[in-house]
Design goal:
By secondary structure, the protein is an alpha/beta fold. The chain has a single domain, classed as Rossmann fold, CATH 3.40.50. Strand 4, helix 8 and strand 5 form a beta-alpha-beta unit. The protein starts with 12 loop residues before the first strand and ends in a 6-residue tail after the last helix. The relative contact order is 0.21.
Amino acid sequence: MAWVWGSGMSSVYLLDTNIFVEAYKRYYAFDIAPSFWTALKSKAELGYVRSIDRVYDEINSYGEDDQLKIWVNNEFETEWFISTDNEVILEAYSDIINWVFGQAQFKEAAKAEFATVADGWLLACAKANSQIIVTHESFNRDVRKRVPIPVVCEQFNIPYINTFDMLRRLNVRLG
């Protein structure tokens, strides 16, 4: 079950890397659903959609300049990627990373990976700023080979939803 605060337009939705990548590679490819990308940009302009600097870095770390990387760098403004270089976010990150490393359920490799990707920082930003994480990951308390965002969300009472619920809450209509 996803934790959710409020509903709709007063919330700030913080996008996981997988929201951008999955949309681009699968169901909202630029040539199939350009209105999805227009809606993301529009809601970001209004302050409802954000991500973090480390998600920006992950998108830009992929090999060649694909259409997603070009769009992120030319259309989705840099200031919409929140800097994680902030004392409150750093404190939240410390709480989260300490909790993850203290959990016997996760394999050491999963903990090490979690410490190197954007996920922990995304969670810290959401925790510090009372934002809602948007991710395609599902809640599964029994996962050992990775640290799922929703499991950490449940531990720290951070709300999370998927893309489709975010679009509904923001009253986005594609077409």
